[in-house]
Amino acid sequence: MSRLAHKTAVVTGGNSGIGLATVQAFIGEGAEVIFTGRNADANKEAEQALGSKAHGVVSDAGKWEDIQSLKAQVEAVTPKVDILFINAGIAQFAPVDQVSEEFFDKILDINFKGAYFTIQALLPLVNDGGSIILNTSINAHVGMPGASVYAASKAALLTLAKNLSAELVSRKIRVNAISPGPVTTPLHTPDKFGISEDAFKQIGESIAAQIPAGRFGAPEEIANAAVYFASDESRFLLGTELIIDGGMATL
Ligand SMILES: NC(=O)c1ccc[n+]([C@@H]2O[C@H](COP(=O)([O-])OP(=O)(O)OC[C@H]3O[C@@H](n4cnc5c(N)ncnc54)[C@H](OP(=O)(O)O)[C@@H]3O)[C@@H](O)[C@H]2O)c1
After folding, report:
1. Are the beta carbons of 62 and 117 closer than 8 angstroms?
2. Do 37 and 47 touch, CB atoms closer than 8 A?
3. Which CATH superfamily is domain 8-244 in?
4. Is 186 near ligand 1, meaning CB less than 6 Å away?
5. What percent of the chain lies above the pLDDT cut of 90?
6. Binning pLDDT at 50, 70 and 90, where does residue 29 land?
7. Is residue 56 in contact with ligand 1, taking CB distance under 6 Å?
8. How far apart are CA 97 and CA 48, in angstroms?
9. Cα of 87 from ligand 1 centre, angstroms
C-alpha cells in the first residue's frame, strides 16, 4: 500500500514501542521518516532494522537546546515535512504526597513543553495541508492512583490538538490526537515507571482487569491509527481524538 507515497514524516521517540511501530508503518505506506530518540545506539539499531527510508537523529524532547537544533537536523535530511507525530514521552507514577518539583518538571518538560516547542520549532518546515498527530494517553480520561502528573501532561495535549487546529486551519494543517490505552511496549517496566517491582506487578494486574477487551494493545494497533491521521483519508478531521483502549474508558 502507498497511502503516504511522496510524504515525509518526523516521529519523535521513534526507536522503541509505539514510535518504532509507527515509523515502520509510515515507511510501509511509502513515506520517508526522520525519527528522534535520546539514545544513539537505539536509534542506530532501529535504522538498521527499518532500512534506508528511516533516519534517526539524537534529540532530547526535554532539553531546550535539542529542541531548538532539531529543525536543522531535520533540514539536513529534507527541506519540508508533511507529517509530524509527537510521540516521545515518559510515564512515571507517584502518589501526590511524594511528587517532587523535579519529578513534576521532568514529566511536563518532556511530555508537554517538549511537545509544544517541538511543534513550534518544526512548524516552518511543515507543508500546508500537513498533519500533526499527538500521542496522548487514556490517562487523560480515567482517574488512576499515582498518575496525576502524567495524566495532566497528556490531557494538556488534547487541548493543544483543538487550539492548534484552530490556529493552523488557514494553512490546512490538521492537528489530531490518539489516546492509547495500555499497549505492550518496553515502557512497561518498573524502571521506566519509576516504581518498585511489587508496585509494578500490582498496577499491571489492576490495569489488565480494567480492559474489557481482556488484553493490552499492540503498538501496531496505534500505528494503524497514526497512518490514518497522517493520510489524506482523514482530511476532514480537525482537533479530534481517537481513543484506542480495548474499551477501558469507553465501555
Ligand atoms: N505503552 C503504553 O501503554 C502507552 C499508553 C498510552 C500512551 N503511551 C504513550 O506513547 C508514547 C510512546 O510510549 P511507548 O510505550 O512506545 O514507550 P517506549 O517503548 O518507552 O518508547 C518511548 C520512545 O520515546 C523516546 N523518548 C523518551 N523520552 C524522550 C525524550 N526526552 N526525547 C526524545 N525521545 C524520548 C524513547 O527513546 P530514547 O529512550 O532513546 O529517548 C523511545 O523511542 C509515550 O508518549 C507514552 O506516554 C504509551
Report:
1. no
2. no
3. NAD(P)-binding Rossmann-like Domain (3.40.50.720)
4. yes
5. 94
6. very high
7. no
8. 44
9. 6
